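In this section we walk through a basic example: taking a raw amino acid sequence and producing a predicted 3D structure, encoded as discrete structure tokens. The instruction is simple. Fold the sequence below.
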Amino acid sequence: MAAAEPTSARAVRLNDDARTTTTVRYGPITLPAASGDDHAETGNRLAFNIAKPCDDCIITSFKPNLVYADGSNANVNTGPMLHHAVLGTHARSDVVCGGPQRMFASGNERVESVLPSGYGIKVRPGERWNMLYDLMNHAPQSKTVYITFTFTHEPAAASRLKPVTPIWMDAGGCLGSAYDAPDGVSEKVRKWRSTISGKLVHMRGHLHHAGRFVRTENLTTGKLLCNVVAEEGGSPEFIDLHGHTEISDMPPCSGDSLGTIERGDVLQITSRYESAHAHGGVMGIMAGWVAED
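The resulting token sequence is shown next.
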């Protein structure tokens, strides 16, 4: 796994509700040229102590993207693909898998997450962030791009928002998210016995090409917590230079509350793929945020 230290820039504006919107930009990152029908790829890279949108604050929404230097979208129709980007911190442990806590993540679907009113993700004073990312290029020319995350946030001092705890449900398991999907219809299932109690208020999903849905349910209570159905090629930006479609939308589940989780409840994630041929290195991930009791 190669190390990387993208530089960062930020643009800030004040919203009508006195919250601040900050876009943090990571890069430049130069992608090698593709060869024929084979895409080029950076492979997983780690960046440490990356820029944050704020300090001692509470984040209420985030939207990921991949852009060129002029701010225009960089998507598979011109070559680049945001295979995945995960922002986390060593300051807290991941409640599902241990290790650094994964806070924000996206694939090329680039869906915005807005937490329901009254909740937010707390950033502690002096907290350091890191980023794991992997980018692809379908174009026969090299491309230079930036990963961006646009956050809405407010100061933690005097905030009445209830902080939420991230949970990372991964059909691939804790040792590695990628797995191989055979041809035809297949489902990958993984269970986790919860170590926390509270209300699940937001959940988002991530699949690769040929992924149909990913869902999380509470087997103990029998309640479906969130089912995210994937859309492919929903706009021209998500159709690559060879005419292949990529995931273009995965609408999150959000509300107060999606379901109650008690310590000891068994949660199950199910990732479904449907394809005429096998796919290697696919993923089925759901990131959720729980307001703990």
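Looking at the output, two observations stand out. The chain is about 0% helix and 60% strand. The mean pLDDT is 94. In the next section we compare this with other chains.
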